[in-house]
Amino acid sequence: MPKAALICGEPVRSCMAGIGVRYLEMARHLPELGIDSVLVSPGTIEQLSGVSAGKADIRCFKKGQLEEAIHDCTVVIAQGQSATCAIKEVSHLPIVIDLYDPWLIENLHYSRFLGNAPFENDHGNWMLQMSRGDFFLCSSEEQRKFYLRFLTALKRINPGIFNHDPVLESLIAVVPFGIPDALPQYKPYLPDRLKNEKRILFGGIYDWLDPWVLLEALEKIDNTELKVFFINSPNPETTPQKTASEVEKWCRERGWLQNRVQMIDWVPFERRYDFLRDVDLLVAPHLPSIEDQLSLRTRYIEAMAVRCPVIASEGGAISHLLERFKAGWIVPPKNSDTLAEAIKEALGNSDERGRRINAADKILESFRWENVLRPFVSFCQDPHKDLYNRSFENDIDSVKTQDDTHGGNMPLICKFVRLLRNSL
Q: What is the side-by-side order of every strand in the sheet holding 281-283?
């Protein structure tokens, strides 16, 4: 039976961000589809306490020891910095590069504070990965079109592969985040509500999102029982938190902190559906940029899975889905007036709320893990090196790698985080 090594880009532990949860869920579901799986964590054995991957094995590895950790595997899938490690250490195996998270684009938001060095390193990693990977995954058709341009520039789209596969399904496939067929039994996560309390979830604050427009909208809604939840990052040492720190400071100065605005710790991955059932609405506006055109917001998929209504900014795969199915509410970026009206309608008009929730149910069929994983399962059943690439292979200079989850920039990012903390 084929055996896939899923090399996670962050340590596997009870509190993980979207990529960690993605890899754990993939490891759990692949055996049901006929693919043995090994979840490989860059963390420690101690961090694995309480984490279950179902029928999949969980192993830890250190840089330079990856081949030993996956000696019995027939194919590798990896994301972020881990993909570069895979290319350098286990190049004899077919390697699937997971481009679900466009981290080079996300990290552009930090260049104002970190300079250009992180971008140069991120770009070098992408060049290496897209030149040497054998199969690529992405989250949406919007992403696929973007990555096809990058792959064309690197000669991965060439006469050899085109004559064999003119639609390029054997090169790059859409494999978004999935949802299970049945959700865990509900067990409340948040404390009991106050009388008339309504809860809005924003989630983790990253610099490409826009919590400010939500706070401005909140000021325009005359409802003191309305509460917004922001969530602290599970990776504060490797993810700059400038916007999150500024939001917390702003709310504290106005007396909103832990009152109208709740800043809570990251929710353990096994309880995320409970938490989503505890809130009344998901609102996570983003700033207009190329990032919003390329990202699939995982939090939206999981919110719709528990029938939690959603409001999204225009632009990107999620808003395109919501618009197509008439599900959720879509508002222009940076428009607090329109957002305030959408919030009031989503929380107050039960008929419209119900219609949009029912419409969202139609979106979810294509996001079942069994459907989502089909292209990857097909590759695992017949894993192969991309022979068509050999004749056109680029001469890629050596790319430095470092142990982190954001493309090799941990020292620079940690330096910025320390400076930020000292300034607040």
A: 261-264, 226-231, 198-204, 281-283, 310-313, 329-331
Burial class (CB in 10 A: 0-12, 13-18, 19+), 88: middle
Q: At 173, give phi and psi (nearest 5°).
A: -135, 155
User: For the chain, which residues make up each domain, given as ranges?
Assistant: 3-178+370-423, 198-366
Supply 206's token pair. 């990253």
Place of tokens 């340590």: 11
CA pair distance 149, 366, nearest whole angstrom: 25
Residue type, 35: I
Residue 332 is encoded by which pair of tokens? 């222009």
Q: Model-level pTM greater than 0.85? A: yes
Q: What does the pLDDT look like over 336-384, one tens digit per residue? A: 999 999 999 999 878 999 999 999 998 998 899 999 999 999 999 999 9
Task: Determine whether domain 3-178+370-423 maps to CATH 3.40.50.1820.
Answer: no
Let me know how long the chain is. Answer: 424
Fold of 198-366: Rossmann fold (3.40.50)
Residue owning tokens 């993909």: 83
